[in-house]
Amino acid sequence: MKQAEFDGRGSHIRWTETPGAEPARVYVHGLGAASSVYHAHIAARPELAGRRSLFVDLPGHGISDRPEHFRYTLEDHAGALAAALDAAEITGAELIAHSMGGSVALVLAHRRPDLVSRLVLTEANLDRHPPSGAGSSGIASYDEDAFADGGHARVLRTVGPVWAATMRLADPRALHRSAVGLRRGSDPVMRTLLEELPMERLYLQGERSGELADAAGLRAAGVRVVSVPDAGHNVMFDNPDAFAAAVAGRL
C-alpha cells in the first residue's frame, strides 16, 4: 500500500500497485466502490500482464482517508487523484475508470493532461442530474445528516450484495457528498470535456444498460463508443473478456 497527502491537512489517498512497464495503467472505481475489487481480476489477465498497474481508492472510499472537512466534489476527487499520480511519479498514464470514477478521470485529464495519455471509460457519468434510477440519485435524495443517521444503512439493504460489499466501507458523509457532487457535475460538464480532450478516448456501454445518450455526437468528436454485449453497468464483472480486450486495445 502506498499513499499521498491530498488536502494539505494530513489526509492521504492510498493505492496498491503491481510493478511493470510504463506507461502505467491506473484503475479508478465508481461511487461507493473500491478499485482493486472492480479491476484487479482484469489487470491480472495474460493480455494485460507486464504493465505497472495502480488501484487507487478515492477519498472517503476503501483504504483512503475520509476527512470531515473535504467537499468530495468531482474537482476535489480529481485533485486527490493527481496527488497520487504525482507521488507515484507517473505521467502519460492510461486511466481505466468506472462510473463516477470516469467523471473524475475526465476532470483530471482536462486539468492535468500531462498525467493522461489514454482514457478507457466504463459507463462514466457524462451529464448533470442523472435519472432517478441512478445510484447517486437515491443517495442524494437524503440530506446529509439524514443519510449519515440511518440513510446509509437503508441504502445498503437495497443496492444488492456486490455494491453493498464496498459501499459499507465508504464513509457515509463522504459518500453523500460524492453523490451530490456527481449530480452537480463539472464545469464544463463531463460530456463536453470528453468531446474536447485530445488523447485517445474509449467509452464502454453495457448493452443491457440501453443506448448511450448522443453516442453519435461523441463519435463525431472522435470518441470510440462500444456497446458491450452481455453486460450491464459493471462491464468488468459481466463480460470480463470484452473488458480486458478493451483495456488491451484489442476490442
Descriptive account of the structure:
It is a single chain. The chain has 251 residues and is α/β, with parallel strands linked by helices. Helix content is 39%, strand content 20%. The protein is built from 11 helices and 8 strands. It has helices at residues 35-43, 74-87, 100-111, 135-140, 144-156, 161-167, 172-184, 190-196, 215-220, 235-238, 240-247, and strands at residues 2-5, 12-18, 21-28, 51-57, 93-98, 116-122, 200-206, 224-228. An 8-stranded mixed sheet has the order 1-2-4-3-5-6-7-8, sandwiched between helices. Strand 7, helix 9 (215-220) and strand 8 (224-228) form a beta-alpha-beta unit. Helix 2 packs across helix 3 and helix 5 (144-156) packs across helix 7 (172-184). The chain is globular.
For the structure shown, list the relevant keywords.
8-stranded mixed β-sheet; alpha/beta; 11 helices; 8 strands; 251 residues; 20% strand; single chain
Brief summary:
The chain contains eleven helices and eight strands. With 251 residues, it is an alpha/beta fold.
CA distance, first residue to last residue: 31 Å
* Rounded radius of gyration (Å): 17 Å
Q: Which residues form runs of ≥5 with pLDDT under 50?
A: none
Strand content: 15-25%
Write the layout of secondary structure elements.
Layout: E1 2-5, E2 12-18, E3 21-28, H1 35-43, E4 51-57, H2 74-87, E5 93-98, H3 100-111, E6 116-122, H4 135-140, H5 144-156, H6 161-167, H7 172-184, H8 190-196, E7 200-206, H9 215-220, E8 224-228, H10 235-238, H11 240-247
Helix pairs in contact: 2-3, 5-7
